[in-house]
Fold these 2 entries.
Entry 1:
Amino acid sequence: MKQKNLVTVIVAGFALCLMLSTTCEAAATTKATTKERKYTQSELRYMTSIIYCEARGESAAGRKAVGIVVMNRVRSKEFPNTVKDVIYQRGQFSPVRNGSMSRALSLYDQQKKKGKFNRDMTNCRKAAEEALKGSTTVKVRGKKKEMKKYLYFSRYIRNAKFQLGNHQFR
């Protein structure tokens, strides 16, 4: 009789462990997916266009880094809290001042209407999607680089802390 009870307890314990393991795994998966930020098509349009203007000739990591800086500004209390307002904040992005942002937005709209983006716009759009979803890391020489604290980038920037391609970040 004792052996039968012991087997029952062991089987029940094993079943409980299996259930808890599955529940914990599901909770971890849910937590990871809820961390991803939702974004609008308008945000994607603006982010893709600014990346196109600022970094279309850069590596995938360089394009994504520019998007991450925009999103860092959206999250910062020092800057406006929308993608569009960050991009159009007075004196911040030269493509806004020189008209290339308007041209990039028009090109984005034309290509979207045709249902096909060219390679440069596609690459910039992918970087924009990753930044908008909340990614804050880029891969540089096989290692992940955390970009959460960077709020500025330029070709030459005083007190730069990191360089990626033709951009310096601070």
Note: The first strand starts at residue 137 and ends at 140.
Entry 2:
Amino acid sequence: MSRRVVVTGMGAITPIGNSVEEFWNGLKEKKVGIAPITYFDTTDYKAKLAAEVKDFKAKDYMDPKAAKRMELFCQYAVAATKEAIEDAGLDMSKEDPFRVGVSVGSGIGSLQAMERETAKLNSKGPGRVNPLLVPLMIGNMAAGNVSIQFGLKGKCINVVTACATGTHSIGEAFRTIQYGDADVMVAGGTEASICPIGVAGFSALTALSFSEDPMRASIPFDVDRNGFIMGEGSGVVVLESLEHAQARGAKIYAEVCGYGATGDAYHITSPAEDGSGAAKAMEMAIADAGLKPEDVDYINAHGTSTHHNDLFETKAIKLALGDHAYKVKVNSTKSMIGHLLGAAGGVEFITCVKSIEEGFVHATAGLENVDPECDLDYCKGEGVSMEVNCALSNSLGFGGHNATLLVKKFVE
């Protein structure tokens, strides 16, 4: 018998706030965290805007010496985890550390470390490369550092599926608890890739928006959309078996009930044009939860603001939900925080949990002229107060990775 899994803690570092409360209030207020890039001189770059995290100081979350041995993507993960563990009231001195695991992924790891050390290699030779380059750079170090900082000795994994990383990480944590391999999992995604090579690479791929107007740059489902805006940050949740959460009197935010994951087997950057892969992930998540399409109230779409994604994801939703697709509220958190790549699924899952908790679905900010081919209800204009019992969170990654999580209101 598989075990029920609940959400008991949440933590977020985002372009519109460095806590879940700030982030959620920002979404409700349609606060857009997109602005001209400050991390480097963009004179020679086509893409001028990004959604940077503001006022982040690693020493507020961890020992400054430990922070020095972490790149930004790891610092964000540790900071979000600290908030999530405190929110969950999880006291590790009372837990078996081997029953508390980590599933925190990063799509890329540290491009900054590679940039810095490659420059040194080219100018000063191999003897000058930082001895810590490898442990600073590799993507699994977010999970490693979270485990080390908080003494979590259970399963410690890092899923890397590009923009689907955060969602797969939470899904695999959910399965781990269901199966009995852990009682508690710290799960989510983290990313910090707003740097010259990151922006140049995505620009060369023509994936980024070259708009210079922050309010009309990340505009999912809009006829004028022309690429995504790179964001950064981390979203981490504490998942527990229901039994474990109840035994320690934890506050339960919501229940994770379904997870679906598929591969398009189609193209390295474009989703399958008929939406079949993403649709199947949604169908699997709904079936996993023992529900029907009609039970879904709200979908937090991948909604990147690229032409292909928004069109094919719309097709996928219609394929998965049939006529009910037209009755569901759909929105894109990326309209305000840009695309957090490997961290997107983590913060968007938190958005779904908050929507259930507060009965509110945020607007897709900046959406003015809905693409006629995108014909669902994308919460244009203002957010909607409504009861949300069941939400889906979608993530689609380069390589054809599709992941969907189904989260619902907790009922004993």
Note: The chain has 13 helices and 14 strands.
